[in-house]
Amino acid sequence: MKILTMPWISRQVGKILDSRLSRPYILFFVKKHKVNLTEFEQKEYRTFNDFFKRSLLPETRRIDWAAESLISPCDGLLSVYEIDEQSWIPAKYSKYRIEDLLENRELAGCYNCGWCLVFRLRPSDYHHYCYIDNGNIQCRKKIPGILHCVRPIAMEKYPVYIQNTREYTLIDTENFGRVVQMEIGALLVGKIQNNRHQGYVRRGTEKGYFEFGGSTVIILIQKEQATPELAVWMLSKLGQEVEVKMGQKIGCKGN
Fold it and tell me: What pTM was computed for the model?
C-alpha cells in the first residue's frame, strides 16, 4: 500500500493510460465492469484515459430542475451522515472530523448538525460530476495529499478522506444555503479535473471529472437547509450504500 500510494507511481500509471499502449485494456475493462456502452457517444478511443473520460449521450441523465429537489452530483454509491455538534461524522469505515477534511475549523463549524453526503464512484461509473444547484462560487481550495484506494479494505485501515488529494468549492446556493462540494482523488488517479468557473453557476452544469480510478464526491449541507430522502437515510443508518445517478433527486429543501 505504501508503495502504491506514492505520487510518482500514480503519475507513471497515468502516463501509460494516456498512451496508445493502454488501448487494448478498454475491452477488458468494459467486460470486467459490465459498462453499458449504449449510454455513451460512439467513437474510436485512442487511449484508455480517452475512453474513461467518455461523454454521455444527450438526455441519458435527466436533471431534476425543481427548486426544492436536492440532486446527486454524480453517478455512484451514496451514504448519508449527520454531522454532530463536535463536527464529527461516523462514516462507515472510519470516523472523520469535518475540520480535518476542510483544513478549516471556522468553516467546519458552519456544518455542525448538518448533513454529509458521500458519493463513492466505482470504476464502472460515469466519472463526470455537476453542480447540485444554482449559486455563486465563493472560493476554492486544493489540498495536496496521497492517493489511497476508496474501497472498503483501504478505508478500514486509513482515514482516506482526510489523507487523499482533494479539492472543494464553497457555493452560496439558491435553495440549500452555503454548500461545500468536494472531490477526492483515489489510488492511481493522477488528477481531479475541475472547470474553473467563476461567479454564478447553474444546477446540472458540469463541474469537472476524474481521471482513472475509484473516486469520491462529498457534499456538506448546513443544518435545516435540506433533508435526504427517507429511504436513503434509513439504508445509510443500516450501513448500506444507495446507487444513484447524476441529476437524480436524493432529498428536498428545508428540514
Answer: 0.85
